[in-house]
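Budget justification, computational time. The allocation requested in the original proposal was used primarily to generate structure tokens for proteins on the priority list. As evidence of use, we reproduce two of the resulting records. The first is shown immediately below.
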Amino acid sequence: MSIRNRLLRFLGTIGILPEQIIPNEPVSLKPIGMVRNGVREPRRQEWTNVSSDIILRKELTDALNGIESYSHVVVVFYLHRVSDEERGRTECHPRGDERYPLQGVLATRTQHRPNPVGVSVVPLVKRRRNVLRVRGLDAINGTPILDVKPYIPQYDAPADVRLPDWVTRPLPAEKNP
């Protein structure tokens, strides 16, 4: 048993709950690149056909070796345009549609989260040196990239996934009068 686990077990026996020892210090990450595309403002939909270049720092070019043999990549990015007020929200209506039930932000894919980190699985169109061309990345021009990983179905696509009804049966689009 690790020292950390022994400490957690001991603290539990004396009545200190694990959430009381969750670190409160900020985590510092250095972007490895940025997004270049024609999308200037955040939007909820219509990302499927957006072509984006993920431009990584030149010193990371060799870190991409082999990535071109994958059809898809997982892109982790910082949602840099989310305000402090939006980060403070704890609930929202999915897709910004009040016809959906109110949910906790951590139970949705909203960008309005305590730590505005986005994660997308996207097709890798091509690699050219330190630039990855992808399609369907839901990030605007200038978005900082935190990480890129190959998508591997055995690890990234679990079986027997459970989803709430509002995800599996989207509401019809509202009709204009």
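The second record produced under the same allocation is shown here.
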Amino acid sequence: MTEDTTNTQYSQPPMPTPNPDLKSLERLVGTWKVSGPDIDGHVTFEWMEGGFFLIQHFDFVHGGHKVKGMEIIGHLQPFGEEPSKDIKSRVYDTVGNTLDYVYELEGDTLTIWGGEKGSPAYYQGQWSDDGNTNTGAWTYPGGGGYESTMTRITAG
């Protein structure tokens, strides 16, 4: 007689997988030159191991000020909760800012909402046919903002 040593009480749940909507941001992976009337620098996007988060490192001169930092982009999932519906991010920079955003990609239009989706502060840009440039502008409530173009230097 064979003894059954399987104990389902201690079986492991299946490993989670990244939300498929994150793959819409794949076109960001790589290094980009960022330029415009009020901004100059570069950004690099790469996937964190596991594919749940996209990480951006940036190094700009913006409005005459040097700013470096990083952004972590993905679905928020506080302990014990389901992942957020929207793709959210948080930026940490060298001047002490922590900024929250929501990413949305529909077709060739990238929208980055400042704070929450629908905010009056947002970036909206269009991808070129070859996917190697994104041209758009930040819009701020009450007027203002700035134009920028992101041009691919290297693919991811």
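A brief technical remark on that second record: The two ends are 56 Å apart (CA to CA).
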